[in-house]
Amino acid sequence: MRGIVAGVAGRYARALFELAEEAKATDAIRKDADALKTAIDGSDDLKRALSDPSIARDALGAAMAKLAEQLKLQPLTAKFLGLMASKRRLPELQRALAGFEALVADARGEATARVMSATDLTEAQMKDLGKALSKIAGGKKVHMMTEVDPDLIGGLVVQLGSTMIDASIRSKLASVQQAMKEAGQ
């Protein structure tokens, strides 16, 4: 489990995981992590606030307390946000949440996949992708964290553990462009 997440984000992810396990609140904290991810993905203002060093610590703490209240987060998650704000670690929040998700999945014998697509995936696509990733993961249940990146143009980029699968049109175009450069030399 130690190699799942590294650095500052990894330390925060492990701390949250251990506290959640101790409190027997892992499922509730996992739901909170999903709610936070959704809130961050849906708000450019929130994304900026998380990484803006000019915002005072007390203002960040108050903003995180308000966010926790609005999202009806567990007290443990709210304290975690407050701690990250007071230590000026909010730029690491998304990585810490992803690390927490990975630790939970690993403890349950699941695998976590980060899936980026150019558009939202349909339920049928999610189901088919889940089956394919489960085969790659040796039959483990795969928990997918999805995000939309229109810059991909089309296709998917999937990270499953240390395996990266890039089936995006953007990468295919980059390969064609590189081949054309090499042919022109």
Description:
- By secondary structure, the protein is of the alpha+beta class.
- The chain has helices at 7-22, 26-41, 44-51, 57-71, 75-86, 93-107, 123-136, 169-184, and strands at 111-117, 142-148, 155-160, 163-168.
- The protein has a four-stranded mixed sheet.
- A hairpin with a 2-residue loop joins β3 (155-160) and β4 (163-168).
- The model has no long low-confidence stretch (mean pLDDT 90).
- Average predicted confidence as pLDDT: 90
The coarse silhouette is globular
Order of helices and strands: HHHHHHEHEEEH
Oligomer: single chain
Question: How does the major sheet shape up?
Answer: 4 strands, mixed
User: What class, by secondary structure content?
Assistant: alpha+beta
> Gap between N and C termini, in Å?
47 Å
* Strand line-up of the largest beta sheet: 2-1-3-4
Separate helix tally = 8
Report the radius of gyration as a whole number of Å.
18 Å
Number of DSSP E strands: 4
What amount of the residues lies in strands? 5-15%
Provide the helix percentage: 55-70%
**Which regions are unreliable across 5 or more consecutive residues at pLDDT < 50?**
none
Features of the shown structure:
185 residues, alpha+beta, 4-stranded mixed sheet, 8 helices, 4 strands, 14% strand, globular
